[in-house]
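Internal tracking record. Fields below are filled automatically when a chain is submitted to the structure queue. Please do not edit lines marked as system-generated. If the sequence contains nonstandard residues, flag them in the REMARKS field before resubmitting.
Queue: standard
Priority: normal
Entity type: single polypeptide chain
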Amino acid sequence: MRERGQETPRKKGNWAARIILVAAALLVLVIAYFALAAILPVWWANVIRNQVQGNLGAGILVGMFYGFIFTLVPLMAAWQATRKSVGWAWKFAILLLAVALATPNLLTAGIMFGNSEAAHNGQRILGTEATWFALWTQISAIAAVVIFAVGVILWRIWRQRGRKVKTLKKSEAERLLAAKAAAAATNPDAGAETDSTANRR
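SYSTEM-GENERATED OUTPUT FOLLOWS
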């Protein structure tokens, strides 16, 4: 009875400590979210402004690069998580990697579709210093999604065709073996002669 009485306060203490740690972690995450939401849009807009430097052609090219590469590569990475041989821990890690790879486009989307003051400041920077960047980022991202979807469809069609070919070859081999066995059972001498002729060849 004493041991149970001693174990109960310990368990309660452990649960209380865990709850406090979880609450502290959530508080840190919330603070980090608001801090990053106030800093990242303006920072990313300044990064793009320094790369484009007010050149319209550069804005188009940079937007195409970020929109296409940082959409297609994350999609290809996330697609690896659909494999049955990959464990759940690795699936989660792969999805985190895909999100990390898509960070440039996520930052651009946060600026273009955000309602915060930082997002509006980022919109003003991109609108004056990198005019075509956001538009061509969106167009290239859509093109990357379409290309990825077409690639997945073609890959599945190719896999299904390969499976059908294997099935047909297997059924044809089984049919030939069955016909050979039936011929050998009907005429044992002919079957022996056929085998000897095959061995000579």
